[in-house]
Design brief:
Helix content is 62%, strand content 6%. The chain is mainly α. The strands form two sheets. It has a two-stranded antiparallel ribbon with strand order 1-4. A two-stranded antiparallel sheet has the order 2-3. A hairpin with a 2-residue loop joins strand 2 (233-235) and strand 3. Helix 7 packs across helix 10. The radius of gyration is 22 Å and the shape is globular.
């Protein structure tokens, strides 16, 4: 975690009575991870990406509430109040992402940078957009536009909640075990000093990695994966029909 959120927390404490305030750490980590994901996924389009990611948070709440209901086959196609809201939010999210993608496509055409290694930018969205272009071998598109939209949604849903949940539980466990706080602090200062750590420094943080893995074991943020088959496929000895939802336990 960088110094920015810590500075914000200190500022909140300074403004509070007796220089003491209550901080909702889970919400703060959700804001932090959403900010990081928006930067990683959209880079130069960070502001638009951050705005686009407001919709999936509400969409996630509606989907979770819908999953809690008793499922009746075919009910996902009925215009119920919850389904109408989910469809509306999904259209809003896809519309925002599509506008970002279209602006990138126009910027490439305007700049004429067809020979660049990253013609659409070196962030996640730019790399995926480069995969839209036909392959030299057969001229087929490697990724379709709707697949990029779905990948952006998956990247947010998977990275946002899971990472913020991991950080929240890790902070809780370290507050319960202050002796491990001391060990991790010593390791971080020894390997990274007071500077911003790079990839090589992070790879040497053995104790930090051990603690994070143990937190994941104790409080796994995701216990199942749900995937939809976009075409009929064979999985082992099973034939999976198109549009079948598969629930895969991962713990």
């Amino acid at each position: 975690m960088g110094p920015k959120p810590i500075q914000e927390w200190k500022h909140q404490a300074e403004l509070a009575e007796d220089n003491c305030t209550k901080i909702e750490i889970c919400r703060e980590f959700q804001k932090l991870t959403a900010d990081i994901i928006a930067h990683t996924a959209f880079g130069s389009s960070y502001i638009q990406g951050k705005e686009a990611f407001k919709a999936p948070r509400e969409l996630q709440r509606w989907c979770a509430a819908s999953d809690a209901n008793i499922f009746n086959p075919g009910s996902q196609y009925l215009p119920t109040p919850s389904n109408l809201q989910i469809w509306k939010l999904d259209r809003k999210l896809k519309g925002s992402l599509r506008r970002i993608i279209e602006s990138r496509l126009k910027s490439k055409i305007t700049a004429g940078s067809t020979g660049a290694d990253f013609p659409y930018g070196d962030d996640l969205l730019g790399v995926m957009m480069a995969a839209i272009e036909p392959t030299k071998s057969n001229g087929n598109l490697k990724l379709q536009m709707h697949e990029i939209l779905e990948e952006c949604k998956t990247f947010f849903f998977s990275g946002h909640e899971a990472t913020s949940s991991l950080l929240t539980w890790a902070v809780l466990m370290l507050s319960i075990h202050p002796e491990w706080q001391a060990k991790l602090r010593e390791e971080v200062l020894e390997e990274c000093g007071m500077g911003i750590p790079d990839a090589d420094m992070l790879a040497r943080l053995k104790l930090v990695n051990m603690v994070l893995l143990e937190v994941l074991r104790l409080y796994c943020p995701a216990i199942i994966l749900i995937r939809e088959a976009f075409e009929e496929m064979k999985l082992g000895n099973l034939m999976i029909p198109k549009h079948t939802n598969l629930t895969i336990p991962i713990r």
